[in-house]
Amino acid sequence: MPEIYTEEKFNKEIVTNYVDVIGQKLGGQVLSFSDEFFAPAANLIKSTPVVFDPTKFVHSGKWFDGWETRRHNTEEADWVIFKAGVSSARIIGCEVDTAHFTGNAAPFISVEGVRADDDSKVGPDSKWEDIISKVECHPCSKHYFVRPCGLTKENYTHFRLRMYPDGGIARFRIYGKVVPILPKDPKTVIDSASVKNGGVAVKVSDQCFSSADNLLLPGRGEHMGDGWETKRSRGAGHVDWAMIKLGAVTKVQEVLVDTAHFRGNFPQKVNVKGYKAPEGIEASPDSLPPFDSDKWEVIVKDSKTGPHEEFKFKAEKEGPYSHVMLTMIPDGGVKRLRVFGTVAN
């Protein structure tokens, strides 16, 4: 049986160390489903908070911001099949949120995975492997399930959520370790901070308005809400910072800091520093030096930024580094961080 976590423990041990590999903002997709009569399955992977409107009804009945199927399913379970937004991932656990589903929530769920190169060959009859075994759910609740044996041995490309026998789920997250496809040519330059290459924001000073994980997403986003933004500081000498575990130990050539959509709240200055942990990218966040330690080497010195613009900086030191730290002086918002370089031998 999966281990059931509290929200605090799940956020500390899982969310900060792993990636939601099916999230819509990462490029995850719903490929197929058994039924979505009352509310579409695509709502499951939305990044926005669940919305409830008690006055809103549609042709099928009550409107829900989630996935809801018909009553009286004659099969064992309803299901949704997802494609990961990354090349593949080993999975540690999941979050199932039944917010606002009272008398119609899913009673039980399970999660399975499969590795496939062709989406068209993935369906209910695929050779699904168990990730989270069948476990009970409750109405209007967030559930956090973690595999007792740790990460899956296999890295999966597709996933299936089953709910027994039918009902509704508002949001669904699958957390795991991205298994990137790194270049064979040692001269190939990649963005090793990208979540698609295994980058993860592992420590952050503040994320009052939006998460530092957004720094590593593909694209430039749609609005200010899908970047990293901190609260306003008032004290002298304040800085905000985010520590990023790179997808591979990297010799850094160039760094890009993007302030897209941050027009009145961009940081006055930024700097970027690097650190090579003795354990490389496997180092635990707690083992990293404090943000003000001289063990962090300067890659980009204090540099002015501006509104809604991409800023490119040549690396003053190439490393190699397993982690980088972006510092905002004194605070504000940044949309994306790119760390371009080659994989260190």
Describe this structure in words.
- The protein has 345 residues and is an all-beta fold.
- The chain has 2 domains: 3-179, Galactose-binding domain-like (Jelly Rolls), CATH 2.60.120.260; 189-343, Galactose-binding domain-like (Jelly Rolls, Sandwich), CATH 2.60.120.
- Helices cover 3% and strands 39% of the residues.
- The chain has one helix at residues 7-15; strands at 3-4, 19-20, 29-33, 57-58, 61-62, 67-68, 78-83, 89-97, 108-114, 129-136, 142-146, 158-164, 168-169, 171-178, 190-191, 200-204, 228-229, 240-258, 269-275, 297-304, 310-314, 321-329, 333-334, 336-343.
- Strands 15, 16, 18, 19, 20, 21, 22 and 24 form an 8-stranded antiparallel sheet that branches. The chain has a 5-stranded antiparallel sheet with strand order 1-11-8-14-2, covered by helices on one side.
- The protein is globular, with a radius of gyration of 21 Å.
- It starts with a strand and ends with a strand.
- The mean pLDDT is 96.
- Residues 27-178, 198-343 form the Allantoicase domain.
- One of its GO terms (biological process) is allantoin catabolic process.
- One of its GO terms (molecular function) is allantoicase activity.
- Belongs to the allantoicase family.
- Pfam families: Allantoicase.
